[in-house]
Amino acid sequence: MYTSLINKKTNIYYYLFVLLFFLGQMIFSQESVKFEHITTQNGLSQNDVNAIYQDNKGFLWFATHDGLNKYDGYSFTVYQPNANDSLSISSNLIFDIIGDKKGNLWVGTTGSGLNYFDQLTNSFKNYKHNEENNNSLINDYIIGMLLDSKNRLWIGTQKGLDMVDLEKRETPLRFNHFTIEQSISIKSKANNINAIYEDKTGEIWVGTLHGLFTMSRDKNGEYYMNLVPKEFGFPRTTVGSITEDKYGKLLIGSSNGLFVSTDATKTKVEFVQRGFFND
Question: pTM to 2 decimals?
Answer without folding.
Answer: 0.84
